[in-house]
Structures are given as structure tokens and as C-alpha cells.
Amino acid sequence: MGSESEERCSAEEGVILGVDGGTTSTVCVCLPLFPFSDHRQLPDPVPILGRAAAGCSNHNSVGENAARETLEQVIKEALSKAGKNLSAVLAICLGVSGVNHPSDQDRVLNWIRTIFPGNVQIYVQNDAVAALASGTMGKLHGCVLIAGTGCIAYGFTEDGKEARAAGAGPVLGDWGSGYGIASRALTAVMKAHDGRGPGTMLTNCILQSLGLSSSDEIIGWTYADSSWARIAALVPVVVSCAEAGDKIADEILNNAVQELSLSVKAVVQRLHLAGEDGNGSFPVVMVGGVLEANKRWDIGNEVTNLILKAYPGACPIRPKVEPAVGAALFAWSTIMREKETGRNDHR
Ligand SMILES: Nc1ncnc2c1ncn2[C@@H]1O[C@H](COP(=O)(O)OP(=O)(O)OP(=O)(O)O)[C@@H](O)[C@H]1O
Predict the structure, then answer these.
(1) Which one of 6, 65, 156, 305 is most buried, by most CB atoms within 10 A?
(2) What angle do the packed helices 216-224 and 178-194 form, to 10 degrees?
(3) What number is the ipTM of this complex?
(4) From the CB of 23, is ligand 1 less than 6 Å away?
């Protein structure tokens, strides 16, 4: 940065972008550059100058060209809605699903570099990072648990060490995910049908929800389209059976709760987030449809209880802002920190 007047100018006019790039959708938001570094000073609600949404930007699902085009599209649209052009951007953070290795980060970084001039700070992260930052208002500290169609626990120490657990997909044991819960429920129905397992309310409730008349028809239904989200959509049916007293549904949900809390515990232990005595304070950000509150069988609440039993200092947080805003706040807090320390951590 140059003179004082230049600094004042960028603080007044410059903007920060945050992108949440998921398998279902991609969102970009444009925020003003807040001229302070303490997240406790952030206005509530956080002002959003422009927002744009598009489809999938996970290169594993749609290929490189489509992923890149989607990212460019949402960035340009969010800026145009904010009445800004590319030259107003001071920093951008992209939390993109499918970014797991430095090579993934470099690929996305190279795409975005072609859009912006060299002085724009670009941060490329896994989408779990945007979710964590949405609960901590930009600070990367603590653990995030995401339980939607898939599930993952991801954490950071204050000095930047990171660890993750689960998130490897349904074949590799993500049993706390929506897909994991629903596939266990469908398995229980097939077992009951064959006489390999006990009868369960899940049979009638799932058949009714799918508009099928016999368990045999489930085979055709799964082969017709085995997309993970379509299977995972059955979780509320499992919850309502458990709420109505079905033992099998109850067992499936209890197992998911154990799996989800184990993922969080694995990250907390590897990063020593709870300190030497296990009582230290750290945020646990809880995100995703599976953790939504339900009347009697509340998966998110049960997971929180197990985490608090193990780590009484854990602070469960349900984010008030969306992950794209979390990504933008991460970019903001990082450039403010870099300004203060004179260090440059951007990739
Ligand atoms: N009230 C509810 N209780 C429990 N689960 C629910 C509830 N409502 C929706 N779900 C489940 O939440 C999951 C979808 O959550 P979400 O929309 O967060 O996931 P996603 O964004 O599609 O997936 P991912 O985060 O893995 O990319 C589905 O499995 C759905 O059945």
C-alpha cells in the first residue's frame, strides 16, 4: 500500500469477495472493506453489496472448464450487482469443494489470477473453511462440522495447523452424513423384507415417501438414479420414524450421532484444541441440513451434547451468515492481519 490518501481511498471504495463453491451451488458475495480488524466491531447484519448464485463448481463433478466458467460468472455478477468493477477488488477468498491438495489450490488460483491484477490477494480454500469462517466471522480457529448430503469435520489452531476427519465419501465410511443415514435406513428395509432383519416402521414410511408400493420396487428406484442427494433426502423420514418410537430408526440416528461426534473429537484431539486439560475454550461451528433442529429427535443437539461431555469448554455455534460471507470475512481478516504484521500469507 502507498500513501495515506491511497489507503483511505481503498478503505472507502475497495471491496472484498467471498465465494462458496459447492456441489449443489456456487455463491459469491461482495462486501465493503471494513476499516478495522476486530470482528466484534462488524455491523449486524453484515452489509452485502452484491450477491450472485450459479450451479456446481466442483471440478470433480463438472470438469475444469465448467467449474472455472461458473466461478468467473458468479464473481462478475456479484460485482456488477454491487455496482463495482474488477479494479475495486482488494481480496477474494474462494472456499471450493473438491479443493483438498496444494495442486487443487494452485489450479483454482491460476484460473482466478487471470481475472485479477497481481496486487489482488487471492486465498483458495476447501469449502469447509468458508463454513468455519461463517461461524467465527472470519477467524480460522476451532472446528467446523458439516453434515448435509456428505459430512466432514475440519479444524484449525490459532497458529494455522489444520486437520480434517471424514469427508471421504459414502464408500469410505461417512456414516453421519445424510447419505449414510438414508442408505442404512434403506438397507434396514431390505433386510426386513428378506427376513434378514427385524420389521421396522421405516418400510411403510419410506415406501409412502417414495410413492412405491412394495420393498422390491426400492431396488429399481435406487438403480434409476443413485445420486447421493436423492438418497440423502430420506433423512427426515428416518427422523420421524425414530420420533414415533421405531427402534431401528433410533439406532441408525444414534449411530450417526456417534460418528459425527467422533469426527469432531478426532480433529480436536489432533490439534489439541481443548488444551492440555481438555477444558480449553474453542468454537465448534455446526452446519448442514442433518443438524437442523427437529421436534423430538434432534441430531445436532445430540452431537453437541456428546462434544460438550468430552470438551466442556467447546462453544457450539450455528452461523448467522452464509458460507460465502464467511469466505469474504476470512479474506478481510487476513488482509487486515497481514497489514498489521507486514506478512503476506496469500496463495
Ligand atoms: N429437518 C431435518 N432433519 C434432519 N435432516 C434433514 C432435515 N432437513 C433436511 N435434512 C437432510 O439434510 C441433508 C441436506 O443438507 P444440506 O442441504 O446442508 O446438504 P448439501 O448442501 O446438499 O450437501 P453437502 O453439504 O454434503 O454438499 C439431506 O440429507 C436432508 O435429508
Answers:
(1) 156
(2) 150
(3) 0.97
(4) yes
